Each structure stands twice: as C-alpha cells, then as structure tokens.
C-alpha cells in the first residue's frame, strides 16, 4: 500500500484533532508515536465495512425488539493472555450464555465480544501511589504495563502496534472457532466442560443442552440441517479510547466512500469521555460503524438527546446503542425519564444494560469487587423500567471470563470476601467467572420469557 493512501483515509475523520480529548496517554515523545501510527496506517484492517454494516442491521433488530444483544468479555485484555485457552474459554462462556438466552426466549441473540481490541482503559485518577511512591496509573496494555515500576508505567507508543497484533491474533482464532466447527450447536454439551459442569448453573445448563440435543436429533430425523446450526455470527467490540490508534486504523470503504473504524466491529464511548464537545464524540460522529455510548447516573435526558443529534442525526435504527450503567440502587429512579424522553423524540435506540460498572466497591481485603446479587438486581431494574414503558430491554453488557476466577462475590458457587485472594487475576475491574455468568444468563432468560 502506498504511504499516500492513509492521508486520504484519515481526512474525513480528522476533525477531532485539536479538540479536548479526555483520558489520552501522555506519550513521552512524538517521534515514536508517529512511527507507531505510521505502521498502523500501512496495516490491513482487522474488520471490514460490510461486517460492520451487518452488525448495524442486527442491532437494528434489537432496537425493534426482535433480538437480544449479549456483549461481554474482559474489563481489560492483556498481551500475556492472548493464548488459545483464554480466548477459547471466553468464547465458550459467551456461546453457553447465548444458548441459554436463545432457547429460553426463542429470540435471536446477537453475540458481541469485549474482545480483540479491549486494551485501553480510562482511569479515575491519572496516578497511583503505593508506599509513598507515585507513578502513572495503568491505562491498559495498549498504553503502558501493569507492574508498579517507572519503566512499565511509562506510556510507550510501540504498544499500539502490539495492541493491533494481539487483536489480529485473537480475531483470527475467533473467526476459526466460530466458523470452523467449534461453535456448532451440536457441540452444546462439549462447551460445558471442566469446573463449570459441576456447578449448580452448569448442571442446569446440562439439562437444557439435553433438550437441545433432542430437538436437533428430531430435526435431523426430519431431514432438516440448516447451515446456521453449524456456525455462529460473532462480532468484536472495545472502548474507542485512544484516538491516535483508532484514527490510524480508520479506512474509507472503497464501495461507499465512507470512513469506518477497522479496529473492531462496534466501538463504544466510555462514561468518562462522552463530553458533547470533546474529541471522542466528534471522532465517533464521523465513522460509519455501529457505535455505543455508556451512560451513568449523572446523565440527563437533554444530554442523551444531544448525543443522538450528534451521533445519529439520521435516526437510523442500529446505529446508536446506549449502554446504561446506573447501579442497582439508581436504575429504577433514573432510567424511566431517559427512556421516555428519547422515545418521545422519535429515535429508535438500542438499549443495553451494563450491570457491572456502577456496582463496584472495595472488599475488606482491598480487592475491587462486585456482588452478583447487585448485578442481577440492576438487570432486573432495567427490565422493569422497559416493561413498564413498553420499550425493549435490548441486551446486557458484562465483564466476564471463561476462567474459574474469584473476583466477584456471590453466585451459586457462593464466592465470599475471603475467597477473593485465591484467584484474582483481572488487570482492572472484577469479572464474573463462568458459573456466575451462567447464573446471570439463566436469570435474564427468565426475565425475557416473562
Ligand atoms: C469499562 O467498560 O471498562 C468502563 C471503564 O466503563 P465505563 O466507561 O462505563 O465506566
Ligand atoms: Mn471495566
């Protein structure tokens, strides 16, 4: 590819430069940054425009109440965990949850991973102090390193290239697993292996898998074997936080002439970077991907309407998703006005519940944690509000892992405060483990059936 092409590609989305951009890394010097972004501009896209368009259509079905979105994965992916086992078990738990939801609700489930690009984190404080030493906060492996040393914590633009490579490796395996037989519905039992099988949620899943097996055997006996049962449609997403990275991977689609972020299918703007006059909202307004915005308890209906005007001026179903993260204690109070005002404006938004980020607290041991009970309660509140208003509770956005970690308390395997130290591996926020994720899926399935 010639070096002239990228300039062309980037021009339509360049308007964010010079605008206030929150939560950007303080790169030590600009030469290394130019070298890294230059590499990225010359690299092939990770996803292509038509895949993003397909996801936009799927999300439009969610907005219309015809499908449900399951979006999940790590709070922060790390370069060290780009391994077969970690990627495969994350996909597996998403597949298991999707089966539970699809079967219970008889509704298509749109599957989107917080994966293959979730390497940059906004932080509440720019620095971290330990034993009197203050260093820059960890901002995700795409920016700096987790170890508490000056060297690791110094932002390094070369990490942007590693982020691209780690995303590409992850996506490659995901594409193979989702289309090459692993995600075949006939494998519904095989996904329920190791520690999760013995958990109460795992046993409940086994019963459901048995019913699906019988349905498949029946269909097979009737001579019906649709292609859809042998593969799954799976999309990637991450927070579009580091604008140097996203801009360098923005490409103009040769068919439509429109710019797309090609780092993932769906990008979202975080709660801390959704300033209406900020660089993130500006950049996102220029790309053609389906996009999402996180909305916390301080958001007003006026702000939500202004975000719609800026990000979805054509009022196109599937273009804009609002990921609501109010907290279990506030969702019933804060969400109704928002949904009512947005609905009255004529916009058809995809509403999704993130029951994780406003339910975080410090355990007595100091570990950042979340109670599964609060997570479930926020989802319940989200459904109650939508049911009362006649709108569609479109989906859930969760932080989870396929591993048997002890980061969130509660669940049918009853993880207690004292257990948190035994396997706490998250580089950032606490994630649901596999059996807690299944607990959540069964609860949501029941609510979808009601
Ligand atoms: C996150 O999704 O990890 C995150 C930081 O969320 P929020 O922007 O909602 O705080
Ligand atoms: Mn998080």
TrEMBL record:
Domain of life: Bacteria
Protein residues bound to Mn(2+): 75, 357, 399, 429
Keyword Transit peptide: no
Coiled coil: none
GO molecular function: 3-deoxy-7-phosphoheptulonate synthase activity
Keywords: Amino-acid biosynthesis, Aromatic amino acid biosynthesis, Cadmium, Cobalt, Manganese, Transferase
Names of the cofactor(s): Mn(2+); Co(2+); Cd(2+)
Catalyzed reactions: D-erythrose 4-phosphate + phosphoenolpyruvate + H2O = 7-phospho-2-dehydro-3-deoxy-D-arabino-heptonate + phosphate
Record bears the keyword Transmembrane: no
Record EC number: 2.5.1.54
Single Gene Ontology BP annotation: amino acid biosynthetic process
Record-listed phosphoenolpyruvate binding positions: 114, 271-272, 294, 325
SUPFAM superfamilies linked: Aldolase
InterPro entries: Aldolase_TIM (IPR013785), DAHP_synth_2 (IPR002480)
Cofactor note: Binds 1 divalent cation per subunit. The enzyme is active with manganese, cobalt or cadmium ions.
Protein family: Belongs to the class-II DAHP synthase family.
Full protein name: Phospho-2-dehydro-3-deoxyheptonate aldolase
């Amino acid at each position: 590819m010639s070096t002239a092409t990228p300039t062309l590609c980037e021009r339509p989305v360049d308007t964010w430069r010079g605008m206030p951009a929150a939560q950007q890394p303080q790169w030590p010097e600009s030469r290394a940054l130019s070298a890294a972004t230059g590499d990225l501009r010359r690299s092939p896209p990770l996803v292509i425009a038509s895949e993003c368009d397909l996801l936009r259509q799927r999300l439009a079905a969610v907005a219309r109440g015809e499908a449900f979105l399951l979006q999940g994965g790590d709070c922060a992916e790390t370069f060290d965990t780009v391994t077969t086992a970690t990627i495969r078990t994350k996909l597996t738990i998403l597949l298991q949850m999707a089966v539970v939801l699809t079967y219970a609700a008889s509704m298509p489930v749109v599957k989107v991973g917080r994966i293959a690009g979730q390497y940059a984190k906004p932080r509440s404080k720019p620095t971290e102090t330990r034993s009197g030493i203050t260093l820059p906060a960890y901002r995700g492996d795409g920016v700096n390193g987790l170890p508490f040393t000056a060297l690791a914590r110094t932002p390094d633009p070369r990490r942007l290239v590693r982020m691209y490579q780690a995303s590409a490796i992850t996506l490659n395996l995901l594409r193979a697993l989702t289309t090459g037989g692993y995600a075949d519905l006939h494998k519904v039992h095989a996904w329920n292996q190791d520690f999760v099988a013995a958990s109460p949620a795992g046993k409940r899943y086994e019963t459901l898998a048995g019913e699906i097996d019988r349905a498949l055997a029946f269909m097979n006996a009737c001579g019906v074997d649709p292609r859809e049962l042998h593969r799954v449609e799976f999309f990637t997403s991450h927070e579009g936080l580091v604008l140097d990275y996203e801009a360098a991977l923005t490409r103009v689609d040769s068919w439509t002439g429109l710019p797309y972020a090609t780092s993932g299918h769906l990008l979202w703007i975080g709660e801390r970077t959704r300033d209406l006059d900020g660089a993130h909202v500006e950049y996102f307004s220029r790309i053609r991907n389906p996009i999402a915005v996180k909305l916390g308890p301080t958001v007003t209906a006026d702000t939500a309407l202004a975000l719609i005007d800026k990000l979805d001026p054509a009022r196109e179903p599937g273009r804009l998703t609002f990921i609501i993260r109010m907290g279990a204690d506030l969702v019933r109070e804060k969400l109704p006005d928002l949904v009512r005002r947005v609905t009255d404006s004529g916009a058809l938004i995809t509403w999704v519940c993130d029951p994780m980020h406003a339910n975080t607290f410090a355990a007595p041991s100091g570990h950042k944690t979340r109670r599964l009970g609060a997570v479930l309660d926020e989802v319940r509140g989200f459904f109650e509000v939508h049911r009362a208003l006649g709108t569609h509770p479109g989906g859930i956005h969760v932080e989870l892992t396929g591993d048997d970690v002890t980061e969130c308390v509660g669940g049918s395997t009853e993880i207690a405060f004292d257990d948190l130290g035994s396997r706490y591996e998250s580089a950032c926020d606490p994630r649901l483990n596999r059996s807690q994720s299944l607990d959540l899926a069964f609860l949501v399935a029941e609510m979808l059936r009601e």
